[in-house]
């Protein structure tokens, strides 16, 4: 699952995970868990994350290697790879696992829309669900998948501050966007319009995956 910050990777990945029975491996989520648990890896990653910068390749590649070694057959990577060295390392890892890459789903959303989405984003600490101040506000009727009805524990990510958002979008353009060409050449890239209603974006993804090579 590929795309700039705020494109909806995590939200759409949750749906794919639920409907296709995939294991969801989101490097951002794993890194935030490491930070929350106070591990050495988390301490190293935190300063990069808070500024909206990428965590060094060696750290992220080592982390994902450990997860892939114990992942079941069908898994969905979300937020990895984000650089060309990560994409090359992933090829090696998938080769070792004899697990071919089936599709790279890239969500396309204009920058002004991304800034608007990230600026108003609130997440639930317990179930991970994402809300938006304007387009998808949390209401007392919303169920928390972990805590029960109306009990989401909402917070804003440190890297959803305006300075960090600007850095994340710039980093996407310089470091991550070139990975698209890498996968386009291999014929596995599926570009999806990531704007509009969540259900519509999801329908586009499912339709594209149904006909993907
Ligand atoms: P995300 O939740 O996907 O927006 O990721 C949050 C932050 O985690 C990013 O801004 C980076 O600092 C870090 N991160 C996540 N995935 C990667 C990756 N593949 N490579 C480097 N840093 C990453």
Describe the structure.
About 50% of the residues lie in helices and about 15% in strands. It has helices at about 10-20, 25-35, 40-50, 55-70, 85-95, 110-120, 160-175, 180-185, 200-210; strands at about 25, 75-80, 105-110, 120-125, 130, 145, 150, 155, 190-195. Strand 4 and strand 5 form a beta hairpin. The two termini are about 15 Å apart. With about 210 residues, the protein is of the alpha/beta class. The protein has a three-stranded antiparallel sheet with strand order 5-4-8. Helix 1 (about 10-20) crosses helix 9 (about 200-210) and helix 2 (about 25-35) crosses helix 3 (about 40-50). The protein has a single domain (about 10-120, about 155-210), classed as 3-Layer(aba) Sandwich (Rossmann fold), CATH 3.40.50.300.
């Amino acid at each position: 699952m590929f795309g700039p910050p705020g494109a909806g990777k995590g939200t759409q990945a949750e749906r794919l995970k639920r409907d296709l029975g995939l294991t969801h491996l989101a490097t951002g989520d794993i890194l935030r868990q490491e930070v929350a648990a106070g591990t050495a890896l988390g301490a190293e990653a935190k300063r990069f994350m808070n500024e909206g910068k990428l965590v060094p390749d060696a750290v992220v590649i080592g982390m994902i290697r450990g997860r892939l070694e114990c992942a079941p057959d069908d898994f969905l990577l979300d937020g990895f790879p984000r650089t060309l060295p990560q994409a090359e390392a992933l090829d090696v890892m998938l080769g070792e696992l004899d697990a071919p890459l089936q599709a790279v789903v890239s969500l396309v959303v204009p920058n002004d829309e991304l800034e608007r989405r990230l600026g108003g984003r609130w997440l639930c600490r317990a179930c991970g669900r994402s809300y938006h101040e304007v387009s998808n506000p949390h209401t007392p009727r919303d169920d928390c998948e972990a805590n029960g009805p109306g009990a989401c524990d909402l917070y804003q990510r440190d890297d959803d501050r305006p300075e960090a958002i600007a850095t994340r979008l710039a980093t996407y353009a310089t470091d991550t966007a070139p990975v698209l060409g890498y996968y386009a050449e291999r014929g596995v890239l599926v570009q999806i319009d990531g704007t509009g209603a969540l259900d519509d974006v999801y329908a586009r993804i499912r339709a594209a995956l149904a006909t993907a090579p």
